[in-house]
Amino acid sequence: MKSIFLSLAALAAVAFAAPAKNNLLALRQAAPQLTDGDILNYALTLEHLEDKFYRDVLEKFSESDFAAAGYDSTFYNNLKEISSDEMTHVSFLTAALTAARAMPVAECTYAFNLTDVNSFLVLSSILEGVGVSAYLGAAADIMSKTYLTAAGSILTVESRHSAYIRSTLKQRPFPSPFDVPLTPNEVYTLAEPFIVSCPESNPPLPVKAFPTLSSSPNNPEKITAGTTITLLTPGIVLKPAPGSTQIYAAFITVTGPVFAEATMVDGGFSVVVPSAPNGTAPIAGQSYVVLTGCNTTVTDETVAAGPAILEVS
Questions:
Q1: CA nearest to 107, candidates 120, 93, 121
Q2: How far apart are CA 70 and CA 64, in angstroms?
């Protein structure tokens, strides 16, 4: 098993005082600058994944399979509309990149390991939520107003997809007044497990995956503020850097991360889910948590593992 010590960058709390609340978003978004072409190809990578996901589902499960699982023809037809939307997003982004004389990435080979209709719905809800967070997180880095407007129009559609699937699963369709932005590296960390291989001709993307962090299957079914959960770090042992004794769980929100101390346990860390401070975005719905040695901000330089996905009531 691999041991990882948090770097000095992940211990920035030693060198910097806690930031004011109005600086949290700026600190959250501090990341290497991407070009608009990079961002469009990053978005296209995610759209290819979603497009293939829905095409695979509609090939694997028939309308009668959905009916047997308790979902009527209206839902099945709406699912086909969602699939069509994702296909259209792929076509649009491919055309935009081609028009800008940039090489668009092609579809990769994926493994979704779907066993039945219900497992599809759970994964669909997760992917749609990640899609919303991906577009929201990338928006601040888009320089072209035309591309920004186009990305915004895709974001709103992905958000409607997410709400519809969540409602079908009897989850709150809009559990928070704010959505959660994720950096490209955080999103890629969540997408990478589904990617088997990509064409060698694809242009390289300036993204990386962080070490895996996951919610323990033994966590309570209903997670709220104050719930003790276990976050698993499969294949690695995460340790504080020399001179430090504490690792933190950072729950990502649009108004800045909310920190909780993480206690090492067998296979990972135990964390009590915190409440967001008054006047900030709540931790609710599909939520994301990373491990870090810093308790003042979260950037790609301070993330040690994650994000993990949690559904917080």
A1: 93
A2: 10
